[in-house]
User: What shape does this take?
Amino acid sequence: MNFCSNCGKPVLYQVPPGDDRSRYCCEACGEVHYQNPKLVVGSIPESDDKLLLCRRAIEPCYGMWTLPAGYLENGETAADGAIRETLEEAQARVDILAPYALFNICHVNQIYLMFRARLKDNNFRPGSESLEVKLFREEDIPWEEIAFRVIDATLRQYYADRKNGSFPFRMGNIAIPR
Amino acid sequence: MNFCSNCGKPVLYQVPPGDDRSRYCCEACGEVHYQNPKLVVGSIPESDDKLLLCRRAIEPCYGMWTLPAGYLENGETAADGAIRETLEEAQARVDILAPYALFNICHVNQIYLMFRARLKDNNFRPGSESLEVKLFREEDIPWEEIAFRVIDATLRQYYADRKNGSFPFRMGNIAIPR
Assistant: This one.
């Protein structure tokens, strides 16, 4: 951020009066521009004993496999965002079963919220951001080609819980790789 | 948003190429300014059979009672944000027990995530945003003076679940009042 989005004058990065951390501040109009983490919502689409994965047609991680997920938009519920992302990336219609896992990715200011979901039918096909969408049995999951660590963590937690036959709400952190 | 925070030129509110909704776009530098919901994190601080509430020293809802909660900051986990807000508003130290409830407040682009928490000690006192902080038994909760509907909904869900002796993760919506 270089300029005030309110008045167009240059901003300073400094601690506002009464605050305890630096923000982008406009000395011309007085506006303080807060920046906060973004929520990424996604689904784990089940069909019988299989899960639907998407092979990415965009960077980062072009060609790798992921679960449908993306930024929550203004005006939508977290579950509706997960449904929309699943439709956009896999042209797949799902019913949300339950919120399942929250992952903090602090170094990129993202919070992931993943929902268990059930495919309504098998009429899925790649959206514009996917090369391919496909149902996988656990033994066929391409573990070496999963796009993001948060997706790998989600899938591993899911299969561990499935063995126990219950899916309590899970929370975890994805730290900076060493 | 009136001006591009990147280059300072005026922005247009229009649908970017390949997108499906309007965004603030800069025709000078090409930047698209996405706006997304903010995550509010808070705690339900327990001490034996009592909960800690804060009486607000700021608007909106000056003088009303609330649970400690506020915007998640960049770089912190959701649980750490709830701990920080509890410290700021009630000068109270808590251990997080579990994530408990997610509420969508779509008309203000907020997602609330509330954690059950346990007070480490009874050395609490009002922070700068509180007039008073106090432990309440269920029968003493000032239901007519609760600051926000999301806090009212959180407390009611909490007491309903407490009667059943278990706290599954809950999800709800706070709609525009009629």
